[in-house]
Design goal:
Elements: H1 4-16, H2 19-23, H3 32-53, H4 64-112, H5 119-136, H6 146-170, H7 175-190, H8 193-196, H9 205-230, H10 235-241, H11 244-257, H12 263-281, H13 293-302
Helix pairs in contact: 1-9, 1-11, 3-4, 3-7, 3-9, 4-5, 4-6, 4-7, 4-10, 5-12, 6-10, 7-9
Amino acid sequence: MNLLPFISVLIGAILWGTTGTAQSYLPESVHPLTVGALRLAGGGLILLFFAVAMRQANFGEWPWRATLIAAVAMALFQPFFFGSVRLTGVAVGTVTGIGSAPVFAGLIEWVILKRRPTQRWAMATVLAVAGCALLLLTGDNVTVNPAGVLLALGAGLTFAVYSMTSKIVLEFAKPAASVGVIFTISALLLSPFLFIYPMDGLRSQEGISVIVYIAIAATAVAYLLFSSGLKEIPAATAVTLSLAEPLTAAILGVAIVGEELNFFAWMGVGLLLAGLIVLTFGRRGADETRAPYFRKQVQDKKE
């Protein structure tokens, strides 16, 4: 049983979970969409440069349609997610956005790939999403804004679409080249935000350090690890494993920022861990280890 792809996705999600703590060191005047555009630009260009330098970028049979869909999905995820957080709060926005992504991913795989979700995935997803809800919905001031919830669902859907279409690209390209090209296009789509919102708070040494960390560790390295694992496992499985992100953010909030978790929040931590353990170490069916779907389709048509 090869655990490396699962561990790779988990480590990538853990690195994502450090983003919130890193952003807490930025001035409040820095808009999250500015950070989103800069992280995609920095991370994408780093990986693209690496892929070109290592001669990993072969554009001869590059799946541009899937690449553009993935880039648009990742670009849309930023305003959807941050807009939902602004309208309905961090708790509801995060739970709805991140928690709905595995469900959307499972449905997309079922409808498009005809890959029926496994019982192990369903059990792990229920445990992880329930844990995420307990972890983030236990505050006293929880408000539900319908428009914010719709934006959060849009964030969950776009992340699921990104994961699915990114997996298609990964069947034709190396992870560094795949993420580099997709994120560079996404950054170009988000570039207008760099002129809309002020960037004064990013010109300090601390601001530059935070952006560099987010671009390199929480974006380039994190998505490279996520994509390396995604290449070998179903997209729905990878998206469920990405729920390690809020788990990491909560633990770092307690350990570094000084936040406190109540009893129900710690129960959520336990359920999230249980779901991730079930998905990583549980028995896998033959359907999860079959040959790449899209490349096989292309080869069958050529034959």
